[in-house]
Amino acid sequence: MTELQKRILSYADSLRSRGDISPEKFGAAIGFTLLQDKKVSIRTYARDLVTAEGYNYGASYFSVESARDFPHHEVTFYQRGKPPVTEAPDGVCYWDAESAGRALESLGYRTGGEAPFQRGGVRPYWRSSRDGKQNMHTSLLTYRAEEGPNARICAYAVRFGGGRD
Question: How far apart are CA 120 and CA 132, in angstroms?
Fold first, then answer.
């Protein structure tokens, strides 16, 4: 997971303009090959990739974009055969949201806090592109791991995108 987290942060750091975003650049930066979805022509994906710790991760990339928005793409962490952590937290913390957020902030991203999202939360981070006319977005999708005094907020996915101001 540590190596995967480093690759994700390196990719987030590489996002300086719309030209930095493509399925090929995304896959190469994180370390996988995206496959065409036969059911959804604008989507490519990678599934059931495994970390050294035995956790799984996958990725998706939606090629459609508007005049203002960039393609949405993300890396998701999970354990194959187990329910999503937002439905049944079992104490697994894929990535501590506080440390992931601090790492993004060290790359020049700013945050506006956290909002509820799909039984968990979303922490959006953004920074201006080189020309200052675009915003690059990197969001952490979060959940509460464990209960009681040991509870902490963790990330189960990192979502990328952006758009013009």
Answer: 32
